[in-house]
Inverse folding.
């Protein structure tokens, strides 16, 4: 890669601080452009049902899955003129999935799943209050923009770790989660959508080691017979390699 001071290799001990800063700036600009491109495909999927190109999916399988779950909820919220709950975590508004697709399939037709919508909102609100996270109702248009904005931030971090042009799978990095309580399960969600059935990061607490890819992430805790409680911070891999959860 050519920069102002000549070719720069990441392992070059002679690289100046100016060259390193220029490289970091260039990497951020490239990742931002790539994220904007993929965000456009996600928007088309939500608006028109156009599938995301398969050539892109290898690096963004998790984002594609979030888009599928959110699109499912968005369609029915729009058709029934319902609102979508969103959690305020850090400086981000993140939509909350009310029912996972497999949960909705238990009802006699997907539309009937919305009969338990208010219950889903109330449970989300209680979980949020338990960890001091605010929750509000957004119309479907605003919720879609919140989702897309979060997708873009997630993808910038992802493509800074592995450029989209490489067509490689996301690189996994060691990551540690520390908690105040023992014998709990750590959950993880991309900070695009708080999933109804979040992925398990690991267990048992108080210290869990796992793997993480570039992105913006939210962690939660779940005990036996308890609802999950989410941490009130978004963790960006690239900035930190450890999360110390403050959930009581």
């Amino acid at each position: 890669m050519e920069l102002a001071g000549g070719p720069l290799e990441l392992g070059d001990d002679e690289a100046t601080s100016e060259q390193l800063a220029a490289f970091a700036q260039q990497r951020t600009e490239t990742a931002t452009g790539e994220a904007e491109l993929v965000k456009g495909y996600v928007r088309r999927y939500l608006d028109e049902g156009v599938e995301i190109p398969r050539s892109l999916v290898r690096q963004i399988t998790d984002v594609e899955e979030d888009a599928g779950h959110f699109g499912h909820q968005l369609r029915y919220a729009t058709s029934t003129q319902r609102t979508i709950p969103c959690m305020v975590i850090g400086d981000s508004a993140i939509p909350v999935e009310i029912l996972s697709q497999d949960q909705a399939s238990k009802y006699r037709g997907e539309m009937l799943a919305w009969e338990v919508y208010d219950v889903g909102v109330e449970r989300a609100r209680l979980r949020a209050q338990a960890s001091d996270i605010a929750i509000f109702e957004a119309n479907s248009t605003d919720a879609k923009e919140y989702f897309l904005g979060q997708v873009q931030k997630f993808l910038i971090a992802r493509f800074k770790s592995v450029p989209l042009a490489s067509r490689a799978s996301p690189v996994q990095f060691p990551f540690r989660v520390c908690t105040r309580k023992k014998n709990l399960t750590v959950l993880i969600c991309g900070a695009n959508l708080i999933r109804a059935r979040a992925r398990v990061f690991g267990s048992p607490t108080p210290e869990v080691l796992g793997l993480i890819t570039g992105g913006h992430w939210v962690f939660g805790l779940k005990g036996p017979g308890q609802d999950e409680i989410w941490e009130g911070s978004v963790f960006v891999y690239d900035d930190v390699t450890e999360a110390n959860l403050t959930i009581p």
Summary: Residues 17-48 form the longest helix (32 residues). Residues 120 and 154 are 26 Å apart (CA to CA). Residues 55-244 form one domain. The longest strand covers residues 172-178.
